[in-house]
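Before a colleague's protein record goes any further, I have to sign it off. What it holds is a sequence and that sequence's fold in token form. My question to you is simply how this chain folds and whether the tokens agree. Thanks in advance; the entry in question is below:
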Amino acid sequence: MNNFGLLLLRVTIGTGLMWHGYDKVLNGGVEGITKMVTEWGWPIPSLFAWAAGLSELIGGTLLLLGLYTRYAAVPVAATMGVALVQVHWGNPFQTGGETALLYLSCSLLFLFCGPGDYAID
């Protein structure tokens, strides 16, 4: 049952991340992230914005499939960690940060535990 639980979590989290990334990369959401990153004073804001969008799109797809799961979990965890600290710091449960916290926690789970037996890996 543990492997089935990992499959269910992987499919759910992977699908959610994939759609978040799809919205950013293919529906113009990267411009909004670029503006946020510029306001933070980070260098090369468009690079970081694209990295965030692609980590969600590609990382979510890889998690969904269970392909290179541990490797995919690293950029997802980094992106969600930055989102939690930079965007939702203070009281994350009032600013929508629980989603970033959930994705961060689950990506760390997949990093440490792997995808389970029902995966392409």
